[in-house]
Amino acid sequence: MSLRLPSILARTPSPAAALLYVAITALATPVGAESPGSLDALQVGEMRRLVLATDPVPAPDTPYTGDDGQETTLAESNGRVRVVNFWATWCVPCRTEMPELEALARDSPGGVEVITIATGRNAPDGIARFRKEIGITALPNALDPKGTLARAMDVPGLPATIILAKDGSEVGRLLGGANWNSPEARALLAHLADAPEG
């Protein structure tokens, strides 16, 4: 990591000024504070495709239908890392990815929640058949029937998985299918769950 000195210090020949700048910068950044760069070492295997948010924004307050049939939003932080997966019954990569999300949900690292949201036109009987064929029991049956949440989160295609930090801001996103139950994915999620909030 290279450190750019402010122009005033760059012109100052004093090594003490540079040392002072480094010390102040180090003290201004809390130990363990999450930044996209701190996840670089954990981006291995399929997690290399995870695009980290350079300017994390909070999840929108756009409603979707939760597992209980009630409207809810992702905007309200629940203090957990959330793996939010957008999928559809017609999506072939979704069919491959869903068992891995199910396995992650069954035995997720502490502080991690998996939310799968069927987005767009998905007939209720088609969703039920999809879930039965794949053996989904641990994942929520959340719905975004008009795709309003997917649009609000700039989801360009399916499947798409967006990771939200404990404070509700986007950490990153992965487009296309992935093995979310892999050791690499689990290590990345556990790291986020163990990080201090904020």
From TrEMBL:
<dbReference type="InterPro" id="IPR017937">
    <property type="entry name" value="Thioredoxin_CS"/>
</dbReference>
<dbReference type="GO" id="GO:0017004">
    <property type="term" value="P:cytochrome complex assembly"/>
</dbReference>
<dbReference type="GO" id="GO:0016853">
    <property type="term" value="F:isomerase activity"/>
</dbReference>
<keyword id="KW-0201">Cytochrome c-type biogenesis</keyword>
<keyword id="KW-0413">Isomerase</keyword>
<keyword id="KW-0676">Redox-active center</keyword>
<dbReference type="InterPro" id="IPR050553">
    <property type="entry name" value="Thioredoxin_ResA/DsbE_sf"/>
</dbReference>
<dbReference type="GO" id="GO:0015036">
    <property type="term" value="F:disulfide oxidoreductase activity"/>
</dbReference>
<feature type="domain" description="Thioredoxin">
    <location>
        <begin position="51"/>
        <end position="194"/>
    </location>
</feature>
<dbReference type="GO" id="GO:0030313">
    <property type="term" value="C:cell envelope"/>
</dbReference>
<protein>
    <submittedName>
        <fullName>Thiol-disulfide isomerase/thioredoxin</fullName>
    </submittedName>
</protein>
<dbReference type="Pfam" id="PF08534">
    <property type="entry name" value="Redoxin"/>
</dbReference>
<dbReference type="InterPro" id="IPR036249">
    <property type="entry name" value="Thioredoxin-like_sf"/>
</dbReference>
<dbReference type="InterPro" id="IPR013740">
    <property type="entry name" value="Redoxin"/>
</dbReference>
<dbReference type="InterPro" id="IPR013766">
    <property type="entry name" value="Thioredoxin_domain"/>
</dbReference>
